[in-house]
Amino acid sequence: MSENQNLLAEQRRALILDEVRRRGGVRVNELTRRLNVSDMTIRRDLDALARQGVIEKVHGGAVPVVEASTHEPGFEAKSALELSAKEDIARTAAAMAQPGSAIALSGGTTTYALARQLLDVPDLTVVTNSVRVADVFHDAQRPASGRAARPGTATVVLTGGVRTPSDSLVGPVADRAIDSLHFDLLFLGVHGISAEAGLSTPNLAEAETNRRFVRSARRVVVVADHTKWGTVGLSSFATLDEVDAFVTDAGLTPGAREEIAEHLPGLVVAGEAREPHEPHESRDAHGSREAHGSREAAGEAVSPG
Asked: Which of 38, 56, 132, 167 has an alpha carbon within 20 to 30 A of 113's alpha carbon?
């Protein structure tokens, strides 16, 4: 970890969390030397991370919180975490959606933030298994307090299924509905993402529903904040090879970025200029890969068709 007095609080806390997870624990005096900040600043950072539930404070330092791989937080609990990061991710990801396209949104608080940004993209057809996401589009279509419905608001298809703690609909009914459809673009929220486990969730039924989403989409874009990197849930449902782009926030550490780049060339960090890179590939309707050019590399949306 480099010493830098000018790090933003979120960046500094991301570095601290990465160090805690990598080493299994840190001491306050070590962090003050490495980050060149005061003891009080480090303690405030540790307090903030402890409130998020990602570390546990111990005498003189902190250790990681090891959650059970089956633990699934509810929607409200997750909504309070990384708010600014999710908004940054949502704005960046929304630029990838082309007017008139068919897109899918999985459940999650980041896809919920993304849904609000997609209201400005006209004539979308949206398929989602998220009750919260569906509500965003439904509310936009319904006139209220003298306000007309938003023009060009998306047509929304909500799958059936069994409701999870995160307000997603999963199970055989949802799976059958998704199997019969084909999407230009899938925006996928995840519980965890790692090089070894790929994309994972603590909910077995949700894992199967997400597999169906991935199979039905020409392009797969994961939207997840930096805290999801390195997290592993009970069930994996896709490998990194099946992902076309990973949109995350600036809290992702340099070490994590290097590791991701080894497995996934389509890394997009919200709020940072994208450097030109080789055209990436996405799957056609038969599962084979097709190249997309430099317009998207420059941050411009490219039609998924």
From this structure: 56
